[in-house]
Each structure stands twice: as C-alpha cells, then as structure tokens.
Amino acid sequence: MEKPGIVITGASGRMGQMLVRTVMESDQARLVGAIERQVSPWIGRDLGEAMGGAAIGVTVTDDPIEAIAKAQAVIDFTSPAATVGFAELAAQARAVHVIGTTGLEPEHLAKIKAAARHAPIVRAGNMSLGVNLLVGLTRKVAAALGDDWDVEVVEAHHNRKVDAPSGTALMLGEAAAEGRGHSLDDLRTPAREGITGAREKGTIGFSAIRGGDIVGEHDVMFASAGERLILRHVATDRAIFARGALRAALWGQDKGPGEYDMADVLGL
Ligand SMILES: NC(=O)C1=CN([C@@H]2O[C@H](COP(=O)(O)OP(=O)(O)OC[C@H]3O[C@@H](n4cnc5c(N)ncnc54)[C@H](OP(=O)(O)O)[C@@H]3O)[C@@H](O)[C@H]2O)C=CC1
Ligand SMILES: O=C(O)C1=N[C@H](C(=O)O)C[C@H](O)C1
C-alpha cells in the first residue's frame, strides 16, 4: 500500500518546519504539499531550499484547495481562523485533519465539529506523550484530593506565543475539573488583577509566563494547608509535538468521520 501523503499548513512556522523535518525523516509517510499564506516569501519556492537545505521537490503554495485535494492527511499548526478553513477543505477531500492549533473559541470548535461529520479530525492542545499522560494523572489526583486543595495551572512559553492560557493548560484544567466531577467552565477562575478578593473554594486558576525561547512548561499545583503537590511537564524540543502529530495522521488513516484526541491515538 502507498504511504499516506501529508500536507503541512503554515510550513514556514516554528511547528511547520519541525513537522516538515519529521515527515521527511519518516519511512511511513510522504510529504506531498506545503501551504503558507499568500504574503509569505516562501510561496513558489521549493520547500527544502526555503528551509535552507537541498531541494525536495515540494513547492510551497498559497492554494490550499489544490494541495489538500491530493492529501490523505493535513497536519495543521496555524491560527484559529486558518484552521477552520482547512477543516472544511480536509473534510471535502476526506483527509485526516490533525489540528494542533490552540486558542480556538466556541465558534471555531463548532465549525470543526461540523467538518468532522465527513472525515476524521484529531485535535489536541498538546500532541506529546508526556502531556497526555499528565492529563490522566491530573484527573486522578484531582479526584483523590478534595476541594480544600486549590488547583493552579502554571504555564510558561516563548515570547512569540499569542494565546493564553495555553491549549495544554486548558487540557490540564479540564482534566482537574473532570476529576472533581465538573466541567472547567463551572470551576475556572477569571484572570487575576487588582483587588480580586479571596479565592473561591474548589476553583481552578491559571497563570501564564511569556519569555525568551521557552518551548513549553506546565505545572499543575494542588495546594492545601501545610502541603503542596506539583505535577510538572517540561518540553525542551518541539519534535515531541511533531512526532505526536504524525502518529495521529497515520493512526487516523483507517478511522471513520468524527472528532478524536491524542488519548484515542495513544490508547490512553
Ligand atoms: N498541539 C500542540 O502540540 C502544539 C500546538 N502549537 C500551536 O500551534 C500553533 C502554531 O504555533 P507556532 O508554529 O509556534 O506558530 P508560528 O507563528 O511560528 O507558525 C504559524 C504558521 O502558520 C501560518 N499561517 C497563519 N495563517 C495561515 C493561513 N491562512 N494559511 C497558511 N498558513 C498560515 C503563519 O504564517 P504568518 O507567519 O504569515 O502568519 C505561520 O507560518 C499555535 O496555535 C500553537 O499554540 C504549538 C506547538 C505544539
Ligand atoms: O505555542 C506553543 O509554542 C505551544 N502551544 C501549545 C499550547 O498552547 O499548549 C503546546 C505547547 O505547549 C507549545
């Protein structure tokens, strides 16, 4: 059987370039397309050369319809508005859409849900094995500890990140809320500034640090009178996200339409 053809969106981005390298190194997939915005200086160039290496025979395009039509999977780490458009095109092509994009609002999620009626979509705010294990641990610890243990999710990222809290922080917050038998919407504290008043019992708070080239660090802190328990994940290399995304693209090849996440892919 032919190896699945993969299209990478936002190919010049931090994750885009990492994904290109990961797919090129894989013996299980073929890179068949690379999409960028019309304004990108990479448009019309050979992708390998644009990345500073040898030609690889893939020309960067701003025409997603043509690129996605020949793909079995689209790996997409771009922006919420772009991702919604790619979801529609991937659904039309019946290609697996792997979504790493974060900062998605309810209106984006509704459109992704609609697209998933036609093809498989794997979406996760973090595609690494470590974070997806941490999600399960967080759910268990939150279930074991009562609501006299305050939960804070503290995340740190590079200074180019545009959304907060991070997608990972929200996954961890959701897991803590689930462990307590609620949804995060029920328990989430508003961002703190000024005279905030004392903390409401049972709530889940978020703090975001932005600086330098931090790849991604997440602490889930359970704080009680006299003791604290901290679960931590530290990413030092974006390759962990790219490997997870490629694994999801391959996993999705024999799946029917629907929304999936990395717990499905990893069998967690
Ligand atoms: N789920 C996970 O495991 C991970 C998720 N992420 C998420 O992935 C996303 C991207 O992160 P990162 O790579 O650091 O960001 P970058 O800004 O480096 O890359 C995004 C790329 O997408 C391009 N892009 C934006 N809109 C379009 C469009 N309409 N068509 C084609 N290309 C487009 C951008 O182009 P331009 O520069 O011209 O805007 C840019 O090249 C973020 O939401 C981030 O949070 C990141 C790491 C891991
Ligand atoms: O923007 C990033 O860089 C990252 N984004 C994801 C998130 O929002 O959690 C995953 C990872 O932490 C890196």
UniProtKB/TrEMBL annotation:
NADP(+) binds at residue 37. NAD(+) binds at residues 10-15, 36, 100-102, 124-127. Pathway: Amino-acid biosynthesis; L-lysine biosynthesis via DAP pathway; (S)-tetrahydrodipicolinate from L-aspartate: step 4/4. PROSITE patterns: DAPB. Keywords: Amino-acid biosynthesis, Cytoplasm, Diaminopimelate biosynthesis, Lysine biosynthesis, NAD, NADP, Oxidoreductase. It is an enzyme of class 1 (oxidoreductase). Pfam families: DapB_C, DapB_N. One of its GO terms (molecular function) is 4-hydroxy-tetrahydrodipicolinate reductase. (S)-2,3,4,5-tetrahydrodipicolinate binds at residues 158, 167-168. It is found in: Cytoplasm. Its EC number is 1.17.1.8. Residues 130-266 form the Dihydrodipicolinate reductase C-terminal domain. One of its GO terms (biological process) is diaminopimelate biosynthetic process. Residues 6-127 form the Dihydrodipicolinate reductase N-terminal domain. It catalyses: (S)-2,3,4,5-tetrahydrodipicolinate + NADP(+) + H2O = (2S,4S)-4-hydroxy-2,3,4,5-tetrahydrodipicolinate + NADPH + H(+); (S)-2,3,4,5-tetrahydrodipicolinate + NAD(+) + H2O = (2S,4S)-4-hydroxy-2,3,4,5-tetrahydrodipicolinate + NADH + H(+). The active site is at 157 (proton donor/acceptor), 161 (proton donor). InterPro entries: DapB_C, DapB_N, DapB_N_CS, DHDPR_bac, NAD(P)-bd_dom_sf. Transmembrane segments: none annotated. Its main location: cytoplasm. GO terms for cellular component: cytosol. It comes from the Bacteria. Belongs to the DapB family. Catalyzes the conversion of 4-hydroxy-tetrahydrodipicolinate (HTPA) to tetrahydrodipicolinate. Homotetramer. This is 4-hydroxy-tetrahydrodipicolinate reductase. It comes from Paracoccus aestuariivivens. The gene is dapB.
